[in-house]
Write a structure and sequence with these properties.
heterodimer; A: mainly alpha; 66% helix; disordered N terminus; B: 419 residues; alpha/beta; 5-stranded mixed beta sheet; 10 helices; 17 strands
C-alpha cells in the first residue's frame, strides 16, 4: 500500500509518468500551480539579490527612472519643446517611464532567465514556465516603490490623484502578460541562440521610441493611429496617463487591440515554450 | 503487486544529435555559416545531422526499498538515465513510472546564490529540491546542526570555503526525506568525516525503506551501499543483478580502457596492449601482503615512432585517493625512441599501503610533457594487512622512531618551576 508522505502536498507523491513528447495543447499548467512555492522563492531571491552589496540599495528602484525623466525633460521637454498635452513635462514623462521601465525589465528577465538560471535547468526538474513567470513578477516591487514617488511628484506639480488610479493594476497586469508572452518566445530562442541577449537592449530601445513615452499620442496623425496601436504598449501607456492625469478618454480601442495581440502572443508563446521545454536541458 | 515497484522503466531511449554539446551553434551567425558551409560540403552537413543513442532500450523494475547502483564507463548513459528519471530531460522513446516522492541530487548545491546568506540559501535550495517553505522552517535547526556551520549561517555563502558550501547544501538535501533518491556522484565531496556522515545518511534512508538509485565511479561506495547493480555499456543494460558479479564484469571490461579524464585520439601514437602484475620472483599475483614489492609489466604498441616517452604508473585506492606514482622521468630512466611492440617493467619498492583495493593506471607522455599520448586503466590489486585498513589508518604505514622522556619529580614541583 502507498502511504502518503506527510510533506507531500507540494510535491508528487503519487505516480509520475515519464514519456516522450506530449501533445501541443498539453500545457501542464497544474504542474506550475503545484510548484508555486518555488515560484515565490525564486521571485524572493531575485528581489533579495538585486540590491545586495549596493550602497544605495533599494534607492536604485527610484534613481533609475528619475534620471531617465530628468534626461527626457531636458532634451525633449525643454530643448525639443515636445508637447505634453498641457501637463508639466516631467510628470507627463514620469507617468509613462514607470510602466515602461517595468515592462522593459520584465521582458529582459523573461527572455534571458532560462539561460541565467541554466544550472537549475540542467540539474533540477521543475516546470520551466516558473522561470519567465518569476522574471515578470520580480520587477513589480521596483514599480511599486517608484509609483509612490510618482504620486509625490504629481502632488508637487499640482496634479491630484483620483479614483481613476484604480485602472493602474489592470493596466499593469496587461503589461506583465505582454512581457510574459514575449519572454515565452524569446526564452527558448535564447537557449538555442544567445544572440537574443545582444538583440534585446536594442530592440527595447527602438520599441520605446515607437511608444508614446517621450511624446503624446496626439502627435501621431489620426489616420495612422490604428497601425500605431498595433503596438500593444500604446494602449497600456495611454491608459496609464489617463489613470494618472484623467485627461481625455481612456483609449479603449487601443487597449482592446493590445488585449487581442497579447492574447495571441501568449497562447502561441505557451505552446512554443512547452514544445521547446523538453530540449532545454540538452541545449542550454 | 505494482505498488511495490518504485521505478519502472520500459524501453527507455534517448537520442542526441552528434556534436550537440561540443559543436553546437550558439549564435545564429554560426548556424547560418554552417548551413551555408554544408551546402558546399555535403558530407559535413550529413555528419552534423547524424544522431546517436545515448541510451537505448533500457528496461528495469526497482522495488521499494532497494538500493541500486548504476555503473559504466564514461558516456555509457548513466547521467542521461538519471536525467530522464528525474524529468530534467524527456526520453526519445520508452516510458517510465516513478511512484513516490522523488528527490534527485544530480549535483550538490545547484541553485545556491553566492550573494545570499546560508539561511536564505537553505530556504532557496529547499524549495528547489521540492520542499515547502513550512517544511524547511520546521527542519531548519536540524539542517544547521547537520551542516556544522551554525556560526556562519547568516554570512553570504560567497564567503564560505568550498567545504562549508557543500556541507550546507548536503545538509539541506539530506532532509528532503524522499521515498526515492537519485544520486549522481554527490557523495564524493567534502572531507572524510563529512563523507562518513553522508554514508550514514544514506544508510538511515535505507533503514527507513527509501529506494536509492546511485551513480558512481567509486566502486567502494557502490559495494557498501548497493545490493544490486545495473551496468550500462554503450547506452544499453549490459548486466543487472548482484553487485559482485556486476563489479567483476565492469572490471574485466574496463581493463585497458582509457581513464575517465582522457579521450584518446582517433589515431593514438601509443597504446597499452597488456598489463600484468607479478610478485618479486615473477609469479602472477593480484593479492599482495603489506610490505611486498610489486612487479608491473606493461606491454605497448606504438604504430609510429615516439621519441623518448615518459611512463607514469599511478596507484589509486578504491575511494579514489591517488596514493602513489612511479615515474620513469623522476626516476631518471631514459627511454629510447619506441617503435612497434615493446615491454616496460617496474619493480616497486616494498609497498607499505593500508589494506584496500588499488587500481593501477598508466599514463604515457611525450618528452617535455606537452602531450598525454595515452592514459589507460591497467589492473587492480589488493593489499592485505591484518590491522591497517583504509578506513582508519590513512594511506601508508611505516614504523617510526620514538623517544620517550619522563620527568621526575612529578607534577606539583614542575608546576612550581614554571611559575
Amino acid at each position: 500500500m502507498l502511504v502518503p508522505h506527510p510533506d507531500s502536498q507540494t510535491t508528487h507523491t503519487s505516480s509520475i509518468e515519464i514519456r516522450p513528447s506530449k501533445g501541443l495543447f498539453d500545457l501542464e499548467l497544474d504542474a506550475v500551480w503545484s510548484y508555486r512555492e518555488l515560484l515565490i522563492v525564486l521571485v524572493y531571491r531575485d528581489i533579495q539579490v538585486l540590491y545586495k552589496q549596493a550602497a544605495l540599495g533599494i534607492a536604485w528602484a527610484i534613481i533609475q527612472p528619475v534620471f531617465a525623466v530628468i534626461v527626457f525633460s531636458v532634451i525633449f521637454g525643454r530643448f525639443a519643446q515636445m508637447p505634453s498635452d498641457g501637463i508639466p513635462y516631467p510628470v507627463f514623462a514620469f507617468a509613462a517611464v514607470l510602466p515602461w521601465t517595468y515592462f522593459a525589465e520584465a521582458v529582459r528577465r523573461g527572455g534571458t532567465g532560462l539561460v541565467s538560471d541554466s544550472d537549475l535547468v540542467r540539474k533540477v526538474y521543475f516546470p520551466r514556465l516558473i522561470i519567465p513567470l518569476a522574471g515578470v513578477i520580480a520587477p513589480l516591487l521596483d514599480f511599486l516603490i517608484a509609483f509612490v514617488i510618482l504620486l509625490g511628484v504629481m502632488i508637487w506639480f499640482g496634479v491630484m490623484p483620483s479614483w481613476r488610479l484604480l485602472a493602474v493594476p489592470p493596466l499593469l497586469a496587461i503589461a506583465a502578460l505582454l512581457a510574459l508572452a514575449i519572454g515565452l518566445w524569446l526564452g527558448p530562442i535564447n537557449v538555442r541562440f544567445r544572440d537574443v541577449k545582444h538583440t534585446l537592449p536594442f530592440m527595447l530601445q527602438v520599441w520605446m521610441y515607437a511608444t508614446p513615452i517621450v511624446y503624446p499620442l496626439s502627435i501621431i496623425p489620426a489616420e495612422w493611429r490604428w497601425l500605431y496601436s498595433l503596438n500593444p504598449m500604446v494602449g497600456v501607456i495611454e491608459g496609464f496617463r489617463w489613470a494618472v492625469f484623467g485627461q481625455g478618454n481612456p483609449n479603449l480601442v487601443a487597449v482592446g487591440i493590445s488585449l487581442v495581440v497579447i492574447g495571441l502572443l501568449l497562447i502561441g508563446g505557451l505552446m512554443f515554450f512547452k514544445r521547446m521545454e523538453q530540449s532545454f536541458a540538452d541545449l542550454i | 503487486m505494482t505498488q511495490d515497484i518504485a521505478i519502472s522503466a520500459k524501453g527507455l531511449g534517448k537520442r542526441y544529435r552528434r556534436g550537440l554539446r561540443s559543436a553546437q551553434h550558439n549564435s545564429i551567425r554560426d548556424a547560418i555559416a554552417s548551413a551555408v558551409g554544408g551546402l558546399f560540403r555535403g558530407d559535413r552537413s550529413e555528419q552534423a545531422l547524424s544522431t546517436f543513442w545515448a541510451l537505448q532500450d533500457v528496461s528495469f523494475d526497482i522495488l521499494r526499498g532497494e538500493n541500486v547502483g548504476i555503473i559504466g564507463l564514461n558516456g555509457a548513459g548513466k547521467s542521461t538515465l538519471l536525467k530522464i528519471l528525474s524529468r530534467i530531460t524527456t526520453p526519445t522513446v520508452g516510458y517510465a513510472r516513478v511512484t513516490g516522492r522523488l528527490g534527485a541530487l544530480l549535483e550538490v548545491g545547484t541553485g545556491f546564490h553566492a550573494e545570499l546568506t546560508g539561511r536564505e540559501n537553505t530556504f532557496l535550495y529547499g524549495a528547489i529540491l521540492g520542499m515547502s517553505r513550512a517544511e524547511v522552517a520546521r527542519k531548519f535547526d536540524a539542517i544547521v546542526d547537520f551542516s556544522e556551520i551554525r556560526d556562519f549561517i547568516d554570512t553570504p555563502v560567497k564567503r564560505y570555503s568550498s567545504g562549508m558550501y557543500v556541507r550546507l547544501a548536503f545538509a539541506v538535501a539530506a532532509h528532503l526525506d524522499p521515498d526515492i533518491l537519485l544520486l549522481d556522484e554527490v557523495l564524493a565531496v567534502g572531507d572524510f568525516t563529512f563523507q562518513r556522515k553522508c554514508m550514514d545518511f544514506a544508510r538511515q534512508l535505507e533503514r527507513k525503506g527509501s529506494t536509492i538509485l546511485f551513480v558512481s565511479h567509486n566502486m567502494f561506495s557502490i559495494k557498501t551501499m548497493c545490493q544490486r547493480v545495473i551496468y550500462l555499456k554503450g547506452g544499453r543494460v549490459a548486466f543487472d543483478g548482484a553487485t559482485d558479479e556486476a563489479l567483476r564484469l565492469y572490471e574485466s571490461d574496463s581493463r585497458l580502457a582509457s581513464t575517465s579524464w582522457f579521450h584518446p585520439p582517433e589515431h593514438p601514437s601509443i597504446v597499452i596492449t597488456d598489463f600484468e602484475l607479478f610478485d618479486e620472483s615473477g609469479a602472477p599475483r593480484a593479492m599482495f601482503d603489506f610490505g611486498e614489492r610489486v612487479r608491473v609489466r606493461v606491454r605497448y604498441h606504438a604504430p609510429a615512432p615516439v621519441e623518448a616517452p615518459h611512463f607514469l604508473l599511478s596507484f589509486t585506492r578504491s575511494d579514489e585517493i591517488l596514493v602513489c606514482n612511479f615515474s620513469s622521468f623522476s626516476d631518471n630512466v631514459d627511454l629510447p625512441r619506441v617503435d612497434g611492440e615493446g615491454v616496460i617493467e617496474l619493480l616497486t619498492p616494498p609497498l607499505k599501503l593500508v589494506s584496500d583495493r588499488y587500481t593501477i593506471s598508466v599514463v604515457v607522455r611525450q618528452r617535455g610533457f606537452e602531450r598525454v599520448l595515452c592514459a589507460q586503466i591497467g589492473a587492480a590489486m589488493h593489499m592485505r594487512h591484518e590491522i591497517f585498513n583504509a578506513n582508519a589508518f590513512g594511506v601508508f604505514h611505516e614504523a617510526g622512531q620514538w623517544r620517550v622522556e619522563t620527568t621526575t619529580p612529578p607534577r606539583p614541583a614542575l608546576a612550581d618551576k614554571i611559575r
